[in-house]
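Q: Give me a backbone?
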Amino acid sequence: FRISLFTLKDLSCSSCLYILTAMPFIFLRSFYMIKREKIDLIHCQGFLSGILGYLLSKTTKIPHIITIQSADFSVYHPKANIKPVKWIHKFIERKIFQNAIKCHAVSNYLKEHFIKYGIKDGVVIPNGVDCEEFKPDANKRITRKELGLDTENLIICISRLEPKNGTEDLIKAAKILKEKIKDFKIAILGSGSQRKKLEKLTDELDLGKYVVFLGDVPHGAISKYLACADIFIRPSLAEGFGIVFIEAMACEVPVIGTSVGGIVDFL
């Protein structure tokens, strides 16, 4: 059941006004659904969902489980990186974790985050990949032509264009690569608050021929872009897990990542 009043955006990347408007409505609809459907267990994913799960659990006496996919609040939300906000965030997070009947992390890095709050029995279950969808491409050059990315060397970056994913560093690296290799393209899939800034940087560095922004691509098409690449790269500054890395691995595409967060588990 979709219980939002309108088409729900990604709450974690929305404005405070949007969040404050949406969450009370989601709480009320969820409360009535729990009663109507006689729900036995509430499963929350992430901080905002965790708040709702905690409040619903307290009001309905139904137990809740929390899953976290990230933990670097100050990196994910640099504008909120001030002491009062960080203190409130930690206070609420502690309440959510300590009241859950089980804390689930998708990487060992995130399990350590639970331990900081005194949760010693957290469980690690990593994310997975549909290997029927993500598989090697035996005809990479043909696929590239179909996608309008005909080049000798294709680098793919699939990423929300936010500061924490380090896409700016990738574009600056392309300037160095241009001095060594002439026939290459870096295709960047995804959108976000940094897109205009990154496009401007690309123009300033005279990389228009080498760096292309493809915007949001339907999830069903991502495997096609990944499988025809020579390299997948995302120079993240923080990463709870990074499922797109293992999707690239399933396509047998070499991966370059930074040694942060959950990337270390599988790289």
User: Anything to note?
Assistant: Residues 106 and 127 are 6 Å apart (CA to CA). Strands lie at 42-45, 64-68, 102-105, 123-124, 153-158, 184-189, 211-215, 231-234, 255-257. The longest strand covers residues 153-158.
